[in-house]
Amino acid sequence: MSAADAEEVEKANTAFYEAMEQGDFEGLSELWLDEDISCVHPGWPVLSGRGEVLRSYALIMANTEYIQFFLTDVKAAVAGDTAVVTCTENILSGGPAEESGELGPLVGQLVVATNVFRRTPEGWRIWSHHGSPVLTESDEEDDEDSPS
């Protein structure tokens, strides 16, 4: 793995999250491969194909007034024309408030993500994104109090 390849993949990964933060659907769309893509958002079923995957991002962008990603634990590995980036998404997001139309309360969430990229003539493109929620201790305590 060359350092230059890893750096380029990390730039593509950062561009993905920046497009989400900016609500740049067109920019986000350009970062994905044209075919055979898949995506798993936390708590969602597997989405396959460009239409399903991009529709999901359009839906998220339409219903999210504010979103910011603080990426930690970013690790990139490159093997030939394939790369994997793992990271923790520290997400701060909010939707519109019910009545005033202003931004509602912000919610924090931790998600671990695996982003798989393929090298193309246009640069690195996303092949698959998989996000999984990280359960906090308070989530686990709630589960213990629930009847089985």
TrEMBL record:
Disordered as annotated region, ranges: 129-148
Leader sequence segment: none
Any Pfam family hit: SnoaL_3
Residue spans of biased composition, Acidic residues class: 137-148
UniProt cross-references to InterPro entries, sorted A to Z: NTF2-like_dom_sf, SnoaL-like
Residues forming coiled coils: none
Residue ranges annotated for the SnoaL-like domain, each copy included: 9-134
Record Gene3D superfamilies: 3.10.450.50
SUPFAM superfamilies listed in its UniProt record: NTF2-like
Protein name per Swiss-Prot or TrEMBL: Nuclear transport factor 2 family protein
Organism of origin: Streptomyces genisteinicus
